[in-house]
Design brief:
The protein is an alpha/beta fold. It is built from 10 helices and 11 strands. The structure holds NADP nicotinamide-adenine-dinucleotide phosphate.
Length: 284
């Protein structure tokens, strides 16, 4: 039976460390601030934004919410981004994705000042991650690395398989594992022999967006299994990309959903906001 990787506990430790550093910054007159922009009324996005606000409150970071109607034009959102870029009280800017169809996500991401891009989605930050010289790490992949590290299993030299090649999860995840000297394979919808490739993985990261996609016959005995998936089932329950019941007797370590990667994503966002405040005040 595998050992459960407790994302709630590990994320609480990260947030406590951020809170301690934020308190020390406040004594120097610096209050790190995160602006969260939500366009429209997607219920899942509202939950994420509320959770981010709660985490800011816990860490003693100032959170500023900008809730705009679903009819907001790209020009209006760009004007808000320009205002936030220029505001010294705003150290981090997060635009909750997805955006309504009349707004081009790439235009918005590119308009955010890279020094305030705490999601690390801006092309400048993506490029910096690629060359291994970065200020911010993308929140979900960085959180996954912390979860893997919590097991004590070294990444170096391990066969790592990432299922999914999105810009926000799969690709940066693979890059971070590579920076840690893992031997990395990226799989996607056109991959052949997916089951066989996954079964070779010492570290398997699933970022597919399909409930219970990873089945027991895809997992090597003793593997570290990280489930990024957050899929809403018809009964309203959250479900990961891994068939948890079937895979946990085989894996060495496994993350639950909920309570695994999700809380780490938010904790990393808090860490990035703190780092942004330090960088912008010449303290990092
Ligand atoms: P995405 O952009 O939809 O990407 C999904 C990836 O899965 C694509 O690269 C796709 O391949 C691949 N895929 C789809 N079907 C496949 C198949 N049959 N075999 C192999 N690969 C397949 O999704 P995402 O944004 O990366 O998110 C993935 C999941 O993580 C979602 O459930 C999302 O909700 C969750 N998520 C969680 C967090 C968190 O904080 N926990 C954060 C972000 C995302 P192609 O490229 O070939 O289409």
């Amino acid at each position: 039976m595998s050992i459960l990787i407790d994302g709630k506990k590990i994320s609480a430790q990260v947030k406590e460390a951020v809170a301690a550093e934020a308190a020390a910054l406040r004594e120097q007159g610096i209050e790190p601030g995160l602006a969260v922009v939500l366009v429209g009324d997607d219920p899942a996005s509202r939950v994420y934004v509320n959770n981010k606000k709660k985490a800011c409150d816990f860490c003693g970071l100032r959170s500023m919410e900008y809730a705009l109607p679903a009819s907001t034009s790209e020009a209006e959102l760009l004007a808000l981004i320009a205002q936030l870029n220029a505001d010294p009280a705003v150290n981090g800017i997060l635009v909750q994705l997805p955006l309504p169809s009349q707004i081009c996500e790439e235009h918005i991401i590119a308009a955010i000042d890279p020094r305030k891009d705490v999601d690390a989605f801006h092309p400048v930050n993506v490029g910096k991650i690629m060359i291994g010289d970065f200020d911010f790490l993308p929140c979900t992949p960085a959180g996954c690395i912390d979860l893997i590290d919590s097991t004590g299993v070294p990444i170096e030299g391990k066969r790592c398989v990432v299922i999914g090649r999105s810009n926000i999860v799969g690709k940066p995840m693979a890059m971070l594992l590579l920076h840690r000297n893992g031997t990395v394979t990226i799989c996607h919808s056109r991959t052949k022999n997916l089951k066989e490739i996954c079964k070779e993985a010492d570290i398997l990261v699933a970022a597919v967006g399909k409930p219970r996609f990873v089945t027991a016959d895809m997992v090597k005995e003793g593997a570290v299994v990280i489930d990024v998936g957050m899929n809403r089932l018809p009964d309203g329950k959250l479900c990961g990309d891994v068939d948890f019941e079937a895979v946990s007797p085989i894996a060495g370590y496994i993350t639950p959903v909920p309570g695994g990667v999700g809380p780490m994503t938010i904790a990393t966002l808090m860490r990035n906001t703190l780092k942004a405040a330090k960088l912008q005040n010449g303290l990092a």
